[in-house]
Fold:
Amino acid sequence: MFGRARRLAAEGVLGLNKRNRDYILRFNPRSRYPLVDDKLLSKQLAIQAGIAVPPLYGVIRTQHDIRLLPDMVRDHPQFVLKPAHGSAGDGIVVIAGRSGARYRTISGVLLDFEQLSHHISNAINGQFSLGGVQDVVIVEYMVQFLPVFESLSYQGVPDVRIIVFRGYPVMAMVRLPTRASGGKANLHQGAVGAGIDLATGVTLDGVLGTEVITHHPDTMNPIAGVQVPQWDTILEIAARCYELSGLGYIGVDIVLDRQYGPLVLELNARPGLAIQVANRQGLLRRLQICEERADFNAHYKERVAFSKREFKHPVKGCCQS
Ligand SMILES: Nc1ncnc2c1ncn2[C@@H]1O[C@H](COP(=O)(O)OP(=O)(O)O)[C@@H](O)[C@H]1O
Ligand SMILES: [Mg+2]
Structure:
């Protein structure tokens, strides 16, 4: 099942320095960062723009507010706690049910109110926020994933990450939770990343750490060949996040909910580069194609059509070094 990650064609790979200098610094105005670094603010922006997000149950802003949690979630046996300034899945707790007075996390750990309060208290104190600054905790709807992903995730919701360059989707992957990632779809937590053919929305092989894998490590099901539902809608939502954020180089995280359809989870102003490994493709060439040929004033539907046409995944074997 495991094989060594194939080396990417050197000229096509976007490295960290180049990403920072030529894309993030050039196309992401500093003044717009707070809009995406604060998940509560991005949520509000998305709602204003008519883009669906997981419904908000409440916000815990102070230590004193923690006692309000049981009331906030009285009618919601399932919910998610999320530090507004967190990243890489840190500090997120997914509560999948109750057992008497205790809360059951998606990985099956039982927490009493005191333990949960302790966690929220740490989050408010900045334990999970960038720079350790004081934070607030979002309490929101727990996304219910579609049956199509059942064979490909272990306890948790897969999310689709799309890199959007000046309004053009350029590369996508789906991140699949594993036993190790504790119900979260972050690669740093041990989730699997699988590339997606931008033209069709069909998954390619996966990557776990730096290893190419063909099967999910927990469910043992093949990763490639799965059609992500509502692919065009997902691409359109991602493209529209450009206007919403004013940021020229972003990673848009989208989940597919059984009831609500595609929902935006968050926007990232410094999206990681592992998506290239998951796709066995460098980002650089795709970014250059946009710079050479794209019309940056085009409507989002035209932008999506361009991306689907230009960034079709090559036939297996043609792009490996
Ligand atoms: N409302 C939710 N319902 C279910 N799972 C969620 C929810 N919000 C986040 N998650 C899980 O946690 C992961 C990280 O969440 P995200 O909002 O992207 O924050 P981060 O900035 O830490 O990556 C998601 O990829 C998803 O797997
Ligand atoms: Mg994320």
Q: What stands out?
A: The mean pLDDT is 91. Residues 231-245 form the longest helix (15 residues). The first strand starts at residue 2 and ends at 4. The pocket of magnesium ion (ligand 2) is lined by residues 253, 266 (CB under 6 Å).
